[in-house]
Amino acid sequence: MPAPAPGYVVLLPVKPPARGKSRLVGIEPHERADLARSFALDTAESCLAATHVSAVLVITDDAYFAADVARLGAAVIPDGVSGDLNESLVQGALEARRRWPGLRPAALCGDLPALRSADLDAALAASEGAGPAYVEDAVGGGTTLYTAPHDLFRPAFGPGSAAAHRAGGARPLEGDLHSLRHDVDTLEDLEAVRRFGLGPRTALASVRVGSLG
Ligand SMILES: Nc1nc2c(ncn2[C@@H]2O[C@H](COP(=O)(O)OP(=O)(O)OP(=O)(O)O)[C@@H](O)[C@H]2O)c(=O)[nH]1
Ligand SMILES: C[C@H](OP(=O)(O)O)C(=O)O
């Protein structure tokens, strides 16, 4: 009989919304921050609703955002190394291991405002097994999810991250996983994910952005 699937702790890094999502151009700074914050809260909520997710650990240096996401039920820690996403994820994984020793870490981008819990569950179920695994983004070349047992956890997010994860021994997860592959960097990306169903905060925030209406 196969061993039972491990539960996962999602590590969700979120740049302070007032500084993140700089490629959302042509809107006011407060509108960009409102969208960035909404993307991350909707992503967190979808993670918390996933069957294979037993905990969500948000990594952020924004105290206001930390309070908002904690109200949803996520745990929160600050960046381990400010400005270094991958090192902060490594430190987040160490903290996750201390808090939840039985859970496998999965790093997920916080800009998936149309994420469906079913897609996340499908990816996590498919990542069972010994080695690291990742989900390539819809554009190609980037990564939206990376998971590995603690001893092999070496995230390499950033430009060319899919190739970097592959070079590090991770296997790409196949399948549609549409809502999980579509991270939102631009307003065009936001339009593209509407067909999957925007999370509630993002839907409202996009109505508040007059130029999107
Ligand atoms: N905690 C933390 N999260 C980060 C950091 N850099 C990026 N992230 C998060 O990692 C995920 C992927 O990053 P990007 O798509 O590059 O997001 P971004 O930096 O807000 O966007 P751009 O300004 O367009 O580069 C998003 O959830 C970001 O909020 C960091 O230094 N610390
Ligand atoms: C974090 C990065 O995402 P992007 O900035 O390309 O959305 C990646 O794909 O590794």
Automatic annotation (TrEMBL):
Write out the entry's keywords from A to Z.
GTP-binding, Nucleotide-binding, Nucleotidyltransferase, Transferase
What protein am I looking at?
2-phospho-L-lactate guanylyltransferase
Q: What is the lineage of its organism?
A: Bacteria, Bacillati, Actinomycetota, Actinomycetes, Propionibacteriales
Q: What is its EC number?
A: 2.7.7.68
Keyword GTP-binding listed? The answer is yes
NCBIfam families listed in its UniProt record: F420_cofC
Q: What class of enzyme is it?
A: transferase
Alphabetical list of PANTHER family matching this protein:
2-PHOSPHO-L-LACTATE GUANYLYLTRANSFERASE
- Superkingdom of origin: Bacteria
The source organism is Nocardioides panzhihuensis
The protein's matches in Gene3D superfamilies, at most eight in alphabetical order, are given as: Spore Coat Polysaccharide Biosynthesis Protein SpsA, Chain A
Q: Which GO terms describe its molecular function?
A: GTP binding; phospholactate guanylyltransferase activity
